[in-house]
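Exercise 7.
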Amino acid sequence: MLLEKFKHLQSKTLVLPDANIDTDQIIPARFLTTTSRKGLGRAAFYDWRFDEAGMPRNSDPFAGKDPLAHQILVGGPNFGCGSSREHAPWALADFGFRAVVSTKIADIFKSNALKNGILPVEVDADTHADLLACPGAEVIINLQDLQIERLGVWKQSFQIDAFGRRCLLEGVDPLRFLQGCAEQIAQFEAKYA
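Solution. The predicted structure, written as tokens, is:
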């Protein structure tokens, strides 16, 4: 799958400070009946946004927020815990998020996010507290230099899986990356056949 190349992202943040936001909150199980990514953004955080009758909730944290202007989701600690459903990053990406920032992001969610074009960024507790206290802050994430910055306030390095970083920079998922190595794979197989 071809993804949008991720090198540099400047965006406002959307803050969800709750700890342990699990994949069932990100996309409830009743929306897992498809293998298509398209349209899953409407189900992202559905139970937070809509009541049982499908009416918007007054407490909707996304109300009035333009997804194109708020592409960085700042979540509470242990973001993406729970089941390993790949639909969770699909829903976030289709909603418009390009990055998730927290002090701790669940390992399986982190892996699924990287494979689907979302950059998971883990920051220290002080940086995270600053982001939680300043919803809508303007943040720059530079994947090339592995830095996250709140404009005029702080700049911090972060770490990311090297292969996941390479795929995001090139705009490919792992399968597309391997397909691009077909010639080298064939040469290796011929040499050791």
